[in-house]
Each structure stands twice: as structure tokens, then as C-alpha cells.
User: Fold this.
Amino acid sequence: MRKLMRYLALPVLVTALALSLVPLATAGPARQEQAAATTVKVRGTEFAFRLSTKTIAKPGIVTFVFTNAGRALHDFKIAGKKTPLIKPGKTARLVVTFKKTGKYAYLCTVPGHAAAGMKGIFTVK
Assistant:
């Protein structure tokens, strides 16, 4: 009986060990993808945007962290996506996936704000 128990225990142990390694094997690419994502800080005031960078080296996921440092409501729009209107002193995140290289216009959509200077070009190389 003991030999049978040892014989049956080995496959169970090997299976348990293999299953415990599965999350480690699949975590690698996800972590690499997160590391490849870019964060761009965006500071909005009356009437300008200041970006931590206006260029990224290749297409991919970019998280824009927009902080309204002005006194009026502002938003941030790029590549067809935009934040809601943000109150002064508040922050919002906007995740955009750039699939192609090119130049992408960004702006504040509040009437008159882009004309007053709240606009620019973001480049994906």
C-alpha cells in the first residue's frame, strides 16, 4: 500500500508544481508590455499645455496624466479620445493606443481655449 501511495503521490506533486508555475510563465509578457507603455504628464493652464514629452520613439500605449493647473475648466483631447472637463487642481488619466507613426494634434475642447493657445502636436516616430 505504501508503494502505491508513493507511486500515486508523484504525479499529483508534479502536476501541482506545474500548475503553480503557470502564473509565473504568463506574467512575463504582461509585465514587459506594461514596461513598454509610456506615461506623459500634461499640465494645463490658461491658456497652454505643457507636456513632459511631445515625442515617443514608437507606436504603443501612452497614458496621459492631465492636471488642470489653471483656474477654469479644461479637458485634453488627442487621437479621438478626451478626458472629461477637469476642475482646477484635479487630475485625470487618458490612455491612448497609437497604432501608427505620425503627428497627432492635441487640444482643449472648451470653446475658445484652443484658439487661445491650448493646442499642439504630439509625434509618434
User: Anything to note?
Assistant: The mean pLDDT is 83. The helical segments are 2-36. The beta strands are 38-45, 48-51, 55-56, 60-68, 77-78, 81-82, 91-98, 102-107, 119-124. The domain at 37-124 is CATH 2.60.40.420 (Immunoglobulin-like).
